[in-house]
Amino acid sequence: MVKRYIAPLASGRVRLRLLEEADLPVTLAWRNQDHIRKWFFHSEVITPDQHRRWFEHYRHRDDDFVFVIEERDTLMRPVGQVSLYNIDWSGRRGEFGRLLIGDPAAAGLGIAAAATRLLVDEALSAWGLAEVDLEVLQSNAPALAIYRRLLPTMDAMMRV
User: Fold this and answer.
1) CA distance 153 to 3
2) Which helix (H) or strand (E) holds 133?
3) How far apart are CA 145 and CA 149, in angstroms?
4) Rounded distance, CA 59 to CA 56, Å?
5) For residues 78 and 100, what is the distance between their CA atoms, to the nearest angstrom?
6) Measuring CA to CA, which residue among 29, 19, 113 is closest to residue 65?
7) pLDDT given at position 105
8) Smallest Cα–Cα separation from 17: which of 79, 66, 51, 89?
9) Is the per-residue pLDDT at 86 higher than 50?
10) Cα 36 vs. chain centroid, distance in angstroms?
């Protein structure tokens, strides 16, 4: 299967672009930070070999899209990631997640919220999805606050 190309998305200070092989060292470093990985369902530390193997599989999947979040105003660099995955194109649904801000300088700037809004809006409009679900740990108050504030109807879509 060939992974479809998705052009970068941009709105305000946030740009989302598909994950590339060159991003693997920084995305692994972000994901393995203790204060980030504790929010993942699989919260163990990931080795470089495990990350590489995941990427080799990922690059051929047309139902999994990881985006690098770039801040374009002051920091002007990659600061995190977000994903839409488990996409059922014919059923017009997908799952949102893997949201993280890994660059400490970008924390608290509203970038996670902007990236969430941008990707969900794109999925529901340009991608033609009718539903975007997400699963979040009940104890992940920062993520829950973002999702509830941005998407008032998201409570019905979230599995907490």
Assistant:
1) 30
2) strand 131-135
3) 6
4) 6
5) 11
6) 19
7) 97
8) 66
9) yes
10) 13
Handedness of CA 56, 59, 64, 70 (dihedral sign): positive
What is the pLDDT, as a whole number, of residue 140?
79
* 97 beta partners: 83
Q: What is the number of other CB atoms lying within 10 angstroms of the CB of residue 133?
A: 15
Q: What order do you get walking across the sheet with 93-101 strand by strand?
A: 9-11, 14-18, 64-71, 77-88, 93-101, 131-135, 158-159
Pairing of strands 131-135, 93-101: parallel
Length of the chain: 160
CB atoms within 10 A of CB 122: 17
pLDDT the model gives residue 160: 41
What is the average pLDDT value for the chain, to the nearest integer? Answer: 91
Summarize pLDDT for 26-58 with one digit per residue, the tens.
Answer: 999 999 999 999 988 889 999 999 999 999 999
130: pLDDT strictly greater than 50: yes
Instruction: Measure the CA–CA gap between 160 and 158, rounded to whole angstroms.
Output: 6
Crossing angle (nearest 10°) for helices 24-31 and 48-58: 120
Predicted confidence at residue 129, as pLDDT, reads: 93
Name the residue type at position 57. Answer: H
Measured distance CA(16)–CA(83) in Å, rounded:
10
The tokens for 48 are: 């470089």
Token digits for 18?
A: 């598909």
